[in-house]
């Protein structure tokens, strides 16, 4: 996936700063950093600062299924910008982006797609 232009993929999504994300989640900045370390969320440097997609926060909580997906991606050696680009890019096997599929509760389909992507 290294040939994907992350800037163009990222531009199609709404982003929030880490400070705003902490506010939406009702947690301290320290707790937010633990959520990032524990792979409940993923942030990347975008537009000059660390941010994460608004879609990663649903109803004041980290997106359900994201942690397991991020862990599976990391187990395959995929993290950071590469993982973010995959999550936000259209996936033919899903017919949508992986983050949209997670939002719909399709975590099993997303996990199968990770395995296909990592081959």
Architecture overview:
- There is one protein chain.
- It is globular and about 35 Å long.
- The strands form two sheets. The protein has a three-stranded antiparallel β-sheet with strand order 1-3-2. Strands 4-5 form a two-stranded antiparallel ribbon.
- The protein contains seven helices and five strands.
- Helix 4 packs parallel to helix 7.
- With 119 residues, the chain is of the alpha+beta class.
Residue runs with pLDDT of under 50 for 5 or more positions = none
| Quantity of strands, as a count | 5
SSE pattern: HEHHEEEEHHHH
Helical content, roughly?
Answer: 40-55%
Which key phrases capture this entry?
two-stranded antiparallel sheet; alpha+beta
Furnish the topology, listing elements before pairings.
Blueprint: H1 6-11, E1 15-17, H2 18-25, H3 29-37, E2 44-46, E3 49-53, E4 57-58, E5 61-62, H4 66-75, H5 80-88, H6 98-103, H7 107-118
Antiparallel strand pairs: 1-3, 2-3, 4-5
Helix pairs in contact: 4-7
Could you write a compact summary of the structure shown?
With 119 residues, the chain is an alpha+beta fold. The chain is 50% helix and 13% strand.
